[in-house]
Amino acid sequence: MRAELEVADIFRHHGPAYRRAHEGHLGRVERRVMSAIELCRTAALGGHVETCQDCAHSRVAYNSCRNRHCGKCQGTARDQWLAARQADLLPVPYFHVVFTVPAEVAAIAYQNKAVVYAILFDAVAETLKTIGTDPRHLGGELGFIAILHTWGQTLTHHPHIHCLVPGGALADDGQRWLACRPRFFLPIHVLSSLFRRLFLERLQTAYTAGKLGFFGVLAAMAEPSTFADALGPLRQKSWVVYSKPPFGSPEHVLAYLGRYTHRVAIANSRLVSADETSVTFRWRDYRHGNAPRLMSLEPDEFIRRFLLHSLPDGFHRIRHYGFLANGCRRARLAIIRPLLAVAQPIPTSADDEVIPPLRRLPRFDPTACPCCGGVLRVTATLPRARAGTAPAPPDTS
Fold first, then answer.
1. Is 101 in the same domain as 36?
2. Of 9, 12, 205, 308, which is the most exposed, with the fewest CB atoms less than 10 Å away?
3. Are 138 and 180 in contact (CB under 8 A)?
4. Do the domain assignments include residue 19?
5. Based on the domain organization, do 119 and 259 belong to the same domain?
6. pLDDT digits (tens, 9 = 90+) for 344-355
7. Are 225 and 314 in the same domain?
8. What is the extent of the structural domain holding 182?
9. DSSP of 41-56
């Protein structure tokens, strides 16, 4: 069902004025994001008619833009991705670990997205791998999924990485599963300190190699002494890393994961109203007990904040590491599952969590008829509504 108000409605109504006002300052990626969202699932992209073979139910389906910044397209992409991931779930506690960077780093990241976001992934991965293999902690190989988000609740630029981590590690000899202590993953202060050091080392290396560029309010950082002065205080600052309690079951993990993997800067469901002078949306105030709030922005500012989160072409915002890395995942899981069958921890108190058996989740099937569950078949093709109107190139990375 179509949301009452969509980001696409705001872009269609206010997008032309935004393009005129920012002519010469709007990048190719941002223009393509706007165009894709505006045209998504409209007659401009063409489509087809689907008819059920059993009950004759028929519906028109306009083509999607397939742009990863489009909330409507990401809903389907998320369902398909999660259906593929259910085979990877293990019957162990899962932890949600979040790595954030200070505002000073976020400003540098915005002007150097591809480089700094890659550094962020590398520093997070190296941090978890290093602490995980340390015999003082787990002493084995972790597996985890890392997901980049670049927004806060009010659409400001706030890059951070969400990690979903099975609570344990595969021993170096491949013969044992090393489980975490109940409801405890790894020491947060150790993760934070190492993450800060690794990130700043990589940032300095990128700067020395001439991979960072600065303009506007950060233009002075092109001078090495100014850049060094900016990094100094960051080495003393506390970098926020936090871990949430483990989940109750693998199914809960998958449901929770779906909230993060293919999310865009703001969902249509958070939009409240839009008119000529403002766009109002809901947000959560984490500093005051997650209290619900409303925020109103001028349309120009709303679009600007949304476009802050456009990712560089080809940049992967979901990555797999350790025993969940794409190159070794199937082989590693085949080793781990038999080990878990004989190494499940025995609860010692009422607080210890018992992980229920993994149930097979429903397979995502876009061809299922919503009325009777029959099979939908394409019975007619709808051409583009306007000759010469080309869709934005798909961005599915």
1. no
2. 205
3. yes
4. yes
5. yes
6. 543 433 444 444
7. yes
8. 90-265+308-343
9. TSGGG-EEEEEETTT-
Q: Is 302 part of a structural domain of the chain?
A: no
CB atoms within 10 A of CB 22: 16
Judged by DSSP in three states, 1 sits in coil
Q: Choose among 152, 136, 170: nearest CA to 98.
A: 152
d(Cα 282, Cα 294) in Å, to the nearest integer? Answer: 5
Q: Which two tokens stand for residue 52?
A: 């059920």
The number of distinct structural domains making up the chain is: 2
Confidence band of 144 (pLDDT split at 50, 70, 90): very high
Q: What is the CATH classification number for the domain harbouring 226? A: 3.40.1310
74: Cβ contacts below 8 Å, ≥ 6 apart: 68, 262, 263, 264
Which is it for strands 94-100 and 140-141: parallel, antiparallel or unpaired? unpaired
- Same-domain check for residues 373 and 230: no
Residue position matching structure tokens 């069902």: 1
Report residue 393 as tokens. Answer: 């190139």
Question: DSSP states of 299-330 as a string?
Answer: HHHHHHHHHTTPPPTT--SEEEEETTSTTTHH
Same domain (yes/no): 175, 240: yes
- Verify that 95 and 38 share a domain, yes or no: no
What are the respective helix, strand and coil percentages of the chain, to the nearest 5? 40, 20, 40
Is 230 within 8 Å of 103 (Cβ atoms)? no
Same domain, 223 and 183: yes
**Pair 36, 160 in one domain:** no
pLDDT in tens, 235-281: 999 999 998 877 766 677 777 777 788 889 999 999 999 999 999 99
DSSP 173-233: TSS-EEEPPTT--S-HHHHHHHHHHHHHHHHHHHHHTT-----GGGGGGGSHHHHHHHHHH
Residue type (1 letter), 152? G
**Domain assignment present for 392:** no
All residues at 6 or more sequence positions from 354 whose CB lies less than 8 Å from its CB, including other chains: 347
Beta strand pairing status for 279-285 and 177-179? unpaired
